[in-house]
């Protein structure tokens, strides 16, 4: 019986040889270890790549979501039909309604310089970043285009087509609203700033009530008022209650009573103003006069018919800077009402 014995080595003429089968097994083991190592490293690299791809996909999805949110649009009903506007506009250009937008906490990127030249109450509140786009009626379309607005708000229907080529455009008519509350809420609907409108109107009501309380005991019951601008040599301008020259502040916010002829000839006829001669100026004058002061008015030589008025004789003429009182926006009107109240209180002392 032959028994086969596998030895790890054998001896031949004094030399020791490794069993060749054993050597192959060692090499095979080393090769298997290397293959396994490469496989593990490859698997780890694959996991890292998948993880990076997943993170990249997530980042891209988040970026897309953020972009989609920033460009989300909604539709607003206007006189020109439904207009698609940004959900919450940020770069707004106005050619008139500056105070209405600012009241809602948004400073336009562009507006005519005349709105602050004759809106001095607004001027300190305007950011340096708001750029001049010209004057109302002669707006520079090139400048508006340069500002890259996401919304344009205008009063001028004739300019709508040109504006609309630059950005979504809404025609806004402040005179169509019955109150400042309605006007501010309408603008808030356009700008999607209803919370800001609610907050501002609450503060607005509180400040108006405070101004009215100031003058309650300094104005005699039944006293009448007239707003006059005598910046012209031959005629004098008598103002109604449709906003300009502090009329909203005086008649609608403070509740001052217009003189009988101002009411019958101007307010009841929905007129902004009338120009009257100095000879008939007395017909319009009330017990108190709110007078507009300007560089032009300083040059006017007031005739005796003026100096003989009861309001003048009783020192009931109160002068106000036309550059503060020309604008009729809600924000300016609030400041105007407070200044009128302060001067009436001061004049009563």
How would you describe this structure to a colleague?
By secondary structure, the chain is of the alpha/beta class. It folds into 2 domains: 74-192, Nitrogenase molybdenum iron protein domain (Rossmann fold); 208-347, 3-Layer(aba) Sandwich (Rossmann fold), CATH 3.40.50.1980. Helix content is 44%, strand content 19%. It contains 14 helices and 17 strands. The chain has helices at 20-70, 98-102, 114-117, 141-146, 160-164, 180-191, 194-215, 247-253, 260-267, 295-298, 304-307, 310-313, 322-325, 330-347; strands at 9-12, 15-18, 73-78, 81-86, 92-94, 110-111, 131-132, 134-135, 138-139, 151-154, 169-171, 224-229, 235-239, 257-258, 273-277, 288-293, 317-321. β8 (134-135) and β9 (138-139) form a beta hairpin. α6 runs antiparallel to α7 (194-215) and α7 (194-215) runs parallel beside α14 (330-347). The protein is elongated. The N and C termini lie far apart (142 Å).
Find the count of extended strands (DSSP E, 2+ residues). 17
CATH-assigned fold name of the largest domain: Rossmann fold
Structurally, the number of domains stands at: 2
CATH class of the largest domain: Alpha Beta
Q: What is the count of helical runs?
A: 14
Provide the CATH superfamily of the largest domain.
Nitrogenase molybdenum iron protein domain
- The global form is elongated
**Main sheet overview:** 6 strands, mixed
Q: What is shown here, in short?
A:
By secondary structure, the chain is of the alpha/beta class. It has 14 helices and 17 strands.
């Amino acid at each position: 019986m032959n028994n086969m014995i596998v030895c790890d080595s054998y001896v031949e003429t004094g030399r020791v040889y490794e069993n060749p089968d054993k050597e192959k097994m060692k090499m095979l083991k080393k090769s298997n270890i290397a293959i396994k190592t490469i496989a593990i490293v490859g698997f780890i690299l694959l996991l890292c790549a998948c993880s990076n791809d997943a993170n990249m996909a997530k980042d891209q999805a988040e970026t897309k979501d953020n972009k989609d949110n920033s460009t989300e649009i909604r539709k607003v009903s206007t006189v020109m039909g439904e207009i698609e506007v940004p959900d919450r506009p940020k770069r707004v250009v106005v050619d008139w309604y500056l105070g209405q937008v600012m009241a809602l906490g948004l400073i336009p990127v562009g507006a005519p310089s005349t709105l602050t030249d004759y809106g001095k109450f607004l001027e300190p509140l305007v950011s340096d970043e708001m750029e001049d786009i010209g004057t109302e009626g002669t707006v520079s379309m090139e400048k508006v285009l340069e500002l890259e607005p996401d919304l344009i708000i205008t009063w001028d229907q004739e300019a709508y087509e040109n504006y609309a080529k630059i950005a979504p455009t809404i025609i806004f008519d402040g005179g169509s609203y019955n109150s400042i509350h309605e006007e501010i809420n309408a603008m808030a609907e356009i700008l999607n700033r209803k919370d800001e409108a609610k907050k501002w109107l609450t503060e607005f009501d509180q400040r108006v009530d405070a101004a009215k309380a100031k003058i309650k005991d300094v104005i005699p019951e039944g006293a009448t008022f007239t707003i006059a601008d005598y910046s012209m040599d031959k005629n004098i301008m008598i103002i109604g209650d449709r906003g300009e020259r502090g009329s909203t502040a005086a008649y609608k916010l403070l509740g001052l009573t217009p003189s009988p002829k101002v009411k019958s000839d101007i307010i009841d006829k929905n007129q902004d103003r009338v120009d009257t001669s100095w000879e008939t100026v007395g017909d319009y004058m009330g017990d108190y006069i709110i007078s507009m002061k300007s560089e032009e008015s300083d040059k006017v030589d007031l005739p005796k018919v003026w100096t003989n008025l009861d309001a003048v004789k009783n020192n009931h003429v109160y002068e106000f800077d036309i550059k503060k009182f020309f604008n009729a926006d809600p924000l300016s009107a609030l400041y105007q009402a407070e200044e009128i109240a302060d001067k009436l209180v001061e004049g009563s002392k």
